[in-house]
Give the backbone structure.
Amino acid sequence: MTNLEKYDKAFIDAFAVSEGDLPTLKYQDIAAWDSVGHMTLMANIEDAFDIMMEVEDIMDFSSYAHGKEILKANYEVDVEA
Amino acid sequence: MSYEELLTIEPFSLAQDKKNSLLLENLLSLTEFHRANCSAYEKITDAINFRAESVQGVEDLPFLPVRLFKEAELASIPKSEIFKTMTSSGTSGQRVSKIFLDKETSLNQQKTLIKIVTSLTGSARMPMIIIDSPSVLKNRQMFSARGAGILGFSIFGRKSIYALDDDMNLQVDKIAEFLAENAGKKIFLFGFTFMVWKYFYQVLREKNWKLDLSNAVMIHGGGWKKMIEQAVTPEEFRRALNEVCGLNEIFSYYGMVEQTGCIYPECEHGHLHASIFSDVIIRRVEDFSTCEIGERGVVQVVSMLPKSYPGHSLLTEDEGVLLGEDDCPCGRKGKYFQIIGRLANAELRGCSDTYAAEH
């Protein structure tokens, strides 16, 4: 699986959304991505890339797009690679 | 000072005189904000002839009885902006408090909690055992106090499990398995005091089950009132848990759903501490004048956090005593205090208490 596939799967598994909805998806946009769903998503992403995220980054993880930037800047995970 | 700026200050670093001017400025502007945005609050404060000019100190600000949130739906935001509602967990025949949150207040609650908790446990996230049942979070639009607490603290957990099943049975095998998977790592336990006592400690003791939690830290709170009724002191609580599972690091806290986020952690000397985000004022029951250090009275809580609802200054139904200011041997600045119990005749309310009453 590519990094992008892993990243997408983390969202799809957490929120049961379709791939097409992902690019514009933001925290609290859909009922499933609330604070409970957020922790599920974070656990999925940590598992997928075998990383441990900081509390600050979990708070900052506000959208599908911004999440990619956080992973790249702080965890050496390039989703687009 | 904006709330964003406040969040950059260490939570227990300000001496009381500095903190007082910060509190006064922010609480006064919150009072004006809520008067402008919540007509019920404006009426109440008009009825007591509130005048901003006559407020000299934090203790001069108006306060609402916490019970009012059960009797009225108070919000300072339009209905369309409400995105979560928190409730005190109510039992049949008991009204619940309803606290309306918008995104901003909800986010500030989480940020405040993070600042306070990381000052205790550090910022590393740990494998987490939630001493409660997953059913508490079934309704995701409306949280009880227990649900809100679990959610707020979950950010400190990396992979978490619930210790209890939907029928409140302790899943000791599941916990043992989780501990084995995370051997060598520090474990984080969170639960409401009474839940920990009744569904964790007492079950372990009765069944003589052993768990090794000597490398774990526990944070518990919210249900101590029931513990006082059962005559379990904080010392006894610590000793008992240490005996059944080797737990050494235990932090308790005082807090309430009406001011979620602003918790008052207990230090190693057994004192509860007010952070820079909030404060306590102890008042005499007879005339609501402020008590001296060491004098018992009813606890008022003020917090700079509540913006979506007028809950920034509340008179609780708890009895407490101010122990001192700025000079606790633990080094934390600001006020430190102790909670003695419930005021006589106050209606039984609160999170873990409620589960106790239901069962």
In short: Chain A has a mean pLDDT of 93. The helical segments of chain A are 3-15, 35-49, 55-60, 64-75. The longest helix of chain A spans residues 35-49.
